[in-house]
Amino acid sequence: MNDESALERWKRFTYVDNLPEDIGPFRKLLEEYSNIPPEEVDGLLLRTRERLWEVAMYPCIGRWSFLNLQSVRDPHFYTVVERLRRSADSGAASSYPEALLDIGCCVGQLLRKLVQDGIDPTRLFGTDLHPEFISIGAELFRDEASGLTFAAGDMLNPDDEALGILNGKITLVHAGNFFHLFTWEEQVVIGMRIVRFMHPETVDAIIFGRQIGTHSPRERQGRRKSFLHNEESLQRLWNEVGAKTGTRWRVSMDINEEKMVDIPGFGEEDRYVRFGIYQFPIEKKG
Hints:
This protein is α/β, with parallel strands linked by helices and 286 residues long. The chain has one domain (70-280): Vaccinia Virus protein VP39 (Rossmann fold). It has nine helices and nine strands. The chain has helices at residues 3-14, 24-32, 41-55, 59-62, 75-90, 109-116, 131-141, 184-197, 231-245, and strands at 100-103, 124-128, 149-152, 172-175, 206-214, 218-220, 226-228, 248-260, 270-280. The strands form two sheets. The chain has a seven-stranded mixed sheet with strand order 3-2-1-4-5-9-8, sandwiched between helices. Strands 6-7 form a two-stranded antiparallel ribbon. β6 and β7 form a beta hairpin. α3 (41-55) packs antiparallel against α7 (131-141) and α8 (184-197) packs across α9. It is globular. The termini are far apart. The model has no long low-confidence stretch (mean pLDDT 92).
């Protein structure tokens, strides 16, 4: 099979031409947050998706998943919003400010939704490997002076100085459709980098999101290897991250048994999952 036919096959499984019908919340975000006239929304989204696809042919781009704001219904988001608001209300009484980082933020859609819901944008951060995604997001939402902070960089490169602006500032992390892209060893490196982002005084950080997991943990073969987790294997991984960083973590995972993963390279044991990774204090001796 030549390269062109392989790419065509990938697009056939991962690319949907027409806009989904169930994107009402995203339409509302563009109309109310960005003041986009309703009649211009469809054309804007079609043009934006083509620009994103030219940067990276991810399934979340081809299948329009980046328009899905259902993540804000994750119970973790209610906790995150409450902590961000409580931190803002406490003002100087707080020992340190809460701050959320969205890893693999794409065009920053979830961060804009949080701003629309009243969260202080200066407490919201986003990072993505592709700087083009961040710039396209600023054009899409028409808010270059929003107060949000974005950093484009490589989470696998410990020396990537572009991500240094996040060090010591974060207490809460959202990572949607992210960890399942990487091998076990790479996930450990990413976990260690996330710990570097954490505010040095926090002892109750939360890392959460939605991704593809499995009933049978394994390294997935394919064009790019990656490791799929169940709750037990994800706990082992974060035990390793904790041992390397002097932190402690507890993992929980909910598996969606109702929906099979229909993306090439995934099997019958693989499922969509929601996860939470919770920091807890190191017990002091003596």
